[in-house]
Amino acid sequence: MNPEDLQRLVTVTMPYGKYKDRLIADLPGPYLAWFARKGFPPGELGRLLALMHEIDHNGLSSLLGPLRRHR
Question: pTM (2 decimals)?
Answer without folding.
Answer: 0.91
